[in-house]
Amino acid sequence: MKNFDYNIPTRVHFGKGQISKLRGEVKNFGHNVLLVYGGNSIKRNGIYDQVMEQLNDSDINVFELSGIAPNPRIDSARDGVKLCKECKIDVILAVGGGSVIDCSKLIAAGAFYDGDPWDLVLKSSLIKEALPIISVLTLSATGSEMDGFAVISNMETNDKLGMGGEILKPRVSILDPEYTYTVPANQTAAGTADIMSHIIETYFHDVEGAYLQDRFAESLLKTCIEFGPIAVKEPENYDARANLMWAGSHAINGMISYGTDVGWSVHPMEHELSAYYDITHGVGLAILTPRWMKHILSDKTVGKFVDYGVNVWGIDSSLDKFEIANMAIEKTYDFFASIGIPMNLREVGIDEENLEVMAEFASKRGAKYGYVSLSKEDVLEIYKMSL
Ligand code: NZQ
Ligand code: ZN
């Protein structure tokens, strides 16, 4: 196991009715609040009203920024930064899924930066200070509620880039599983795939002796496999929503990656698909993951696949190791298909046209540094297998 510096600073209020903690938490950080949210979902399901009830206080002034799109755009962040500077915002309250929270992170950092916020996306080391962020999560997927990353898109240049910093970790997150009851089946499935991808990207590493991290990761994967399908079928099943929500946070908050050496492969490949075609992140990951697994299976990696097949999917450990690995990959594919995810790129509107250019960027922007280094040619092959 490698050395690490543990830092998971987010205070989490988990469970039914925890919104009641919001007023006190906001007041801990100041008076002027920027409420950031997406489309209309929080108005339709009543979360907006519950939040506003908490903010109805003579000591709190609320400013709003709405309309944050899935795959959040740099333009929204620019608007938010302007508001923070004009209205002297003390704290950002992000109410939504990963897109809203990610956009809030860039706004939080941009509030202390004089230039264009896009500079911070291109170069995270420019981030020196940030406003505190409180999140109220409405969709289990990205883990943005407990991590320091954000992914921002610039559709004019077909860029979708990650940025990050310890100071971007939300200071407080309210996680009420009931807030995810209205997430539609397709987003629930995509969210489950995203959580599983975060775990898989982390789990496939070469570090000796990170036994505990690997067993944690396997438990998180089994939790998604158990509860993802239930949440898709029974959207108001509290335990399914609760287990998915908590798994989503732990998938990426550091618990399973501290002490290992993580280079992600599938995310850089997916981010190019979203940048060019604006597809749902989790769907892209589900399509690519089993193809990536097939591509990297070799004598060198097969041991990890055996652990994955036996410990996660319950495959008989006495079988031949490549047989176990191939069965595990098939089970991964079948699982995503079973929760209703379209499993080919063509089904989400992607054809051969931009595969070359996307493969080049994906390799350069991360896949080259993954568990198994992927060249442009490797990525292209994976994209073609996924068509
Ligand atoms: O905009 P509204 O109306 O709120 O609707 C949203 C949106 O259309 C809807 N939704 C959210 N909560 C709902 C709901 N609908 C009904 N009921 C609710 N309770 O769901 C749609 C998708 O929302 P979005 O926030 O885009 O989804 P998600 O949480 O999957 O976030 C995806 C973004 O996060 C990035 C992705 O690349 C993508 O841009 N990621 C962020 C990461 C991070 N910060 O660590 C890591 C991830 O790997 C990922 O890359
Ligand atoms: Zn993801």
From TrEMBL:
Gene Ontology CC terms, in alphabetical order: cytosol
Domain Alcohol dehydrogenase iron-type/glycerol dehydrogenase GldA positions: 9-177
EC main group: oxidoreductase
Naturally occurring in which organism (per UniProt): Peptacetobacter hiranonis (strain DSM 13275 / JCM 10541 / KCTC 15199 / TO-931)
CDD domains named in the record: BDH (cd08187)
Pfam families per record: ADH_Fe_C (PF25137), Fe-ADH (PF00465)
Enzyme Commission number, as recorded: 1.1.1.1
Protein name: Alcohol dehydrogenase, iron-dependent
InterPro entries the record matches: ADH_Fe/GldA (IPR001670), ADH_Fe_C (IPR056798), ADH_Fe_CS (IPR018211), BDH-like (IPR044731)
Fe-containing alcohol dehydrogenase-like C-terminal domain span: 188-386
PROSITE patterns recorded: ADH_IRON_1 (PS00913), ADH_IRON_2 (PS00060)
Any one GO MF annotation of this record: alcohol dehydrogenase (NADP+) activity
Xref: PANTHER family: ALCOHOL DEHYDROGENASE YQHD
